[in-house]
Amino acid sequence: MRSAWKQRPVYDRNSPSRTGPLVVNYDLDQLKVGENRVVVGRKDGFDLHGRDIAPGDGWSRALYAPECTWPQGAHLCVLVEWHPDRRVSSDWAARLEAVASGLRSLDYVVERAGRPVDPAHDLHANLLVYRMEAGQPPPDRPDDAWAHVPAPRTYTGPETNPLQQMEWWTTQTKAARHGGCVTVRDVASVLWPPQADLCGLVRWWPAPGTFTAAVYDDVREVASVMQDAGYRVRTQERPLPERVESVDLLVYHEAAPSPAA
């Protein structure tokens, strides 16, 4: 069997959603801690792909992280999921450390970010993996910085789901009237700022042909509405292009500081 990768992907800072995961997935594959995709045959002129993974190792993959969730000063950032082999006993701690150590050897910053995982109930574990801009030091954040993150919950009866409330607020803005669709969705806790205890991703699609200056005006309005409601808002550090299809904003609530001992 031969590797499904024909050559090393090239990272394009102007297209991180496509090229970032490709680069990290290639590195995971080369380290033998990824999906380890191989060509297992051919049919009708096309390669057939499979996975060459040792029993018990599980597999990991890189997924795109919206730029508004990146650590400040990051040049590339992805969410890496590790999935255990459910057929046999997998040592979560050992396998996660193998993934993290391998990536660190390639000059990635790797953090055990997000809500602590429970191997008895969780289906996979997450890592935050990124590289910093040249000359920028990574943030100093311990692994337990997210220990306060609450477990996921459902809202019933008269309770208001905060994400649904965020979405209603955004639909009342001038940005929503000027553009197409505005949605608010949940965000994997691995992408939360470490000081957050609730987080949502606002995605807004401006009307086709809207110029950047008008987009920034509408983004400022949405951010102001969220800030008036007690939330903090983060946008991507990279300037928006002259024409933009969608804009992401990370909206989060800061956890109350722990009482002094």
Describe this structure in words.
By secondary structure, this protein is of the alpha+beta class. Helix content is 23%, strand content 26%. The chain has helices at residues 16-30, 92-104, 162-171, 174-178, 212-228, and strands at residues 2-3, 37-43, 46-51, 59-64, 74-83, 109-111, 125-132, 182-186, 196-204, 232-234, 247-254. The strands form three sheets. A four-stranded antiparallel β-sheet has the order 4-5-7-6. Strands 8-9-11-10 form a four-stranded antiparallel β-sheet, with helices on one face. A three-stranded antiparallel β-sheet has the order 1-2-3, with no helix packed on it. The longest helix is centred in the C-terminal third of the chain and has 17 residues, at 212-228. The mean pLDDT is 89.
Summary keywords:
about 260 residues; alpha+beta; 11 strands; four-stranded antiparallel sheet
SS-based class: alpha+beta
- Taking the alpha carbons of the first and last residues, their distance comes to 59 Å
User: Unreliable runs, pLDDT <50, ≥5 residues?
Assistant: none
- The number of helical runs is 5
How large is the radius of gyration? 20 Å
Number of strands: 11
Average pLDDT level: 89
Give the strand order, joined by hyphens, for the main sheet.
Answer: 4-5-7-6
Helix/strand order:
EHEEEEHEEHHEEHEE
Which of globular, elongated, flat, extended, rod-shaped describes the shape? globular
Q: What is the percentage of strand-forming residues?
A: 25-35%
Largest sheet: 4 strands, antiparallel
* Proportion of helical residues: 10-25%
